[in-house]
Amino acid sequence: MIAALRGVGKTYASGVTALSGFDLDVRAGEFVSLLGPSGCGKSTALRILAGLSAPSIGTVEWSGGTPAPGNIGFVFQEPTLMPWASVSANVALPLRLAGLGDNRAHAVAMPWVDRVGLRPFAQAYPRELSGGMKMRAAIARALVTEPQILLMDEPFAALDEITRFKLDNDLLSLWRELARTVVFVTHSVFESVYLSQRIVVMTDRPGRVFGEVMIDAPYPRDENFRLSSDYAGYCRKVSQILAQASHEAAA
Predict the structure, then answer these.
(1) For residue range 42-71, what is the model confidence (pLDDT) as tens digits?
(2) Residue 32: how many CB atoms within 10 A of its CB?
(3) All structural domains of the chain with their residue ranges
(4) Which fold has domain 26-67+148-157+168-251?
(5) pTM above 0.90, yes or no
(6) ∠ CA 111-117-119 to the nearest 5 degrees?
């Protein structure tokens, strides 16, 4: 186990309770998805795990103690790139904030620009990029400090389906190459089954864990998996559990 949330609850100043009794184990090197309807507290759980928000109750545990900021990478729903900076400068930003000089930060950042396929656009500005390219830059920026865990908050939800499929494939390639832990938030059953080793299904707000599904299909995964009976079977199973979670929360 690399991290865990234990009995976590979160109530905002408005009185809205996003999470209640939420428990989650994150295992080293795994790809785990948090799946649930919009507003169920998935993003809140991710932000608490990242240290961007404090729980109202409960604890966040890390093996070896709380990691330094550079050991947690976070990709938000929006790319959040600096509009006045080039792709390479955006990717290098965490290194510059950590104290590296401009030349060294650029030298370290460029291999990550390459890894996400943006070398031809290294000097382009965000306004010149497609939505998929902007998200690739955001992923490279999150990985440039070589974090031990990458937290991703519905990063591809706003993209068209073809771009989303391509980025899903590229993300899996990076995950397998880098052997990092990924916690991925989504409300898509199909995306969660395609990407994950394990899916944590959450109830409606206030969110808690309703159940887990292991996806035992081997990697690498490709279009053959998307078209397989195994994939369809996993999607049915996860959809059924998600429906049960929503029904129980409404009861």
Answers:
(1) 999 999 999 999 999 999 999 888 887 789
(2) 20
(3) 26-67+148-157+168-251, 80-147
(4) Rossmann fold (3.40.50)
(5) yes
(6) 60
